[in-house]
Each structure stands twice: as structure tokens, then as C-alpha cells.
Amino acid sequence: MSPGALIVAAWFVATAAAAADLRTEVAADLVSAYYHPERVHAGALKAIPGASLADQLRAIDPWIRLDPPADEKAARVRSVTRHAGLEISETRDGSILVQPLPGGPAERAGLANGWLLRSVGAQRVHRLDDVREAFAAILPNDPLWLEVMAPELGQVLSYTIAPPGGRGWDSPLGDERPAAGVTQRGRIWHARILRFQGGRTRSALEDGLRQADAAGEPIVLDLRGNSGGAVLEAFVTAALLLPAGTPMGGLRPAVQDLGDVRARSASPLLRSRIDVVIDRYTASAAEVFAAILRDTGRARLVGERSSGKCVVEEQLPLSGGARLTLPVAEFVPPGGQRCHGDGAGLLPEMPLGGDLLVDTNRLLERLGGPAVARPRAIPLPSPRLCAGATPRRKTGCGAP
Fold this sequence. Notes:
The protein is α+β, with helices and mostly antiparallel strands. 28% of the residues lie in helices and 20% in strands. The strands form three sheets. Strands 2, 3, 4, 5, 6 and 7 form a six-stranded antiparallel β-sheet that branches.
């Protein structure tokens, strides 16, 4: 055998060994951390020709994700999406969802929550991996061109977002994106909650919500497109709106000591009427938050059926820089009605059509606000660090 053939053979042996090691590592994490280890039989992750490890994991549970090691491409994707004010995620049915952040370039360009990404530049995208490849190929000063489907309009639309000045998409990233914010629109207070981030979401909302509650004016808690975040922060934020001692449900199994949670806020906000807006992309910690307020009778749900992903996820580092995301617990609402799985999700008491759910002004008008918004921004607090995080388990700040 020639030296070149020996090198190639050695490479194949090393690659096969690395793949086997990864499967062994993933299998061990499934047994130790996954909340339904009985679904994982001994041969579940054996090497199968034509079937990737990621596909095998999705067959066990569609919420299990195996992400490759971060690299220069991942850094470029993060830079472009952050500068464009855009979040992109893959839904359970494989659709690619765009979520423009309030006040960012993508929202100013006209993109709306709930629209589906079809192309980035000249490249059609079918999975999140396609989106990463397309974003990574964008040069620093090239505009970002997106083609999206607006389901409620039945139209395909195109948008162009210019890069920032200076170094373009490679410009240094600014401060952390806000987790939430509150604006007053006439007599209605609109609280936009983008994610539940440990130590930040409740603090970003509290000043504005206290002003609304002191005046006894209605509050709209807007969870459209909110894919979740830190479940402890969802409990902490919901507790702000509930009498002390109120049962809030819990996690099964009881991870993070959240098996049987009760509200413990010293001065809860109890005067204002509350509507919680949900849509098909409201998931995970956001569904936990909405279910708590629904089942305690504190809020009315409006919008459309939520995602049905009432689980807590944990991200585990793997050898070589890969990451495994596993469901580790399921949330059981205080009313006991399961909200996770196929055909589950939270049902709104007041269903709203897609045309309202993509138009914030019309949505607030329907819920009792003015036709013309008169926003008064409540300043967002500076981010603070949370204690107690570990490389394998990230915890939030505070307690309900």
C-alpha cells in the first residue's frame, strides 16, 4: 500500500473512532440527563448507513439537538443576525421562522414576527443548517437580502438590510440585546417579552408594570415569537403578578429545586387586568409563564395555540466543542393540564387571526388600546451577572 493510501486509511480509522466516541458520549448523556431515558434502548445510537447521529436523536425526540462546534462561520452568523436585529429559529415542523427585534434594522425594514424564511441572497434555505451556511457566506459590507413568506398575506416578500458602517457586519457587537421592555400606549401598557433571561427579564419589566398597576390600567404581556429561555426567570417574573403563596405548578422531575413552586413576591402587582398574547411560536419558558398566569386566573390568553413545548432544556458540552441540547424536565401547570407534546400547547380564550398577530398597532387596538400608538418608553436596566452558573448547568438569578 502506498504512503498516501496509508494516510487516507488512517484518517478514516480516526474519523470512525471519533464518531464512535461521540455516540458513546451522547448515549451516556441521554441516560443521565434526558427526562425520558426509557425511550433510549441499547442500540438506539448505533451506526446506521445513511442516518446521521442528529437524525437518530430527532427520531427519539424532536426537541433533542446536536450542534457542531462553533467556528468562524458561527461567529459571522451571530454577528450578522445581531447587527440586523434578527433572530432565526427552526420550528418543530421544519419551517424557518424570522423574529425581528423591536426597534432593530429588520423591524424598521418591515419584517414581522411569524414570517417564514425562504431564501438568503440567491440561496434557498430548507433547514437551519442552510441558513447558517448562507449567512456565513455574506461578505462584511454586503447587504443582507432575505425572501420571506408572509402566511397571513399569502405573499412572498423581499427585504434588504444594509450592514452597519465602518467594518460592516464585522463591526464590534454592542451591548446585550434587551430581554424585554414596556411602553405605554394611551391607557394600555404593552410589555414585549423577547426571552426569559436570568436576572434580566423581570427587572426589565418591573418598573413599567408597577406604574401600570398603580394606575389600575390594563397590561398586555406580549409573548409572540418568544421561544423561551431560563425557566427560573419565567417563574420569578410570573410571581411578580401573583399573591404570595399562590401555587405555580412545577417541573417533573424537579430540576433546579422547582418541583412545587409558590409565589413569594413581597409586593405583587394585583390591580391591572392582564392579557397574555401567544402564538404558534411561543414555547418552552414562555409557555410556562403563560400557563401559570392562565391557571391561577390572573390573565386571559389571547392569540393562537402555542407551540406545545412545555419542557426545560439543558445544553451539555461534548468533546471537540459540539453541544447537545436535551429536554430534562416537563412543566406541569398548577391546573394539571399537560401542555407539552403533539396536539398540546396552550389554547387562547380569545382566538385572534394571523392578520392581527403580525400587526402590533391593530393587536393593541383590538385589546383596548388606541389606534395610534403614543409610546412612552420605560428605560431598560443595565444587565447584571448571575451567580451559580456552571459549564454544564446554567442557572438564573433570584427566586419566585
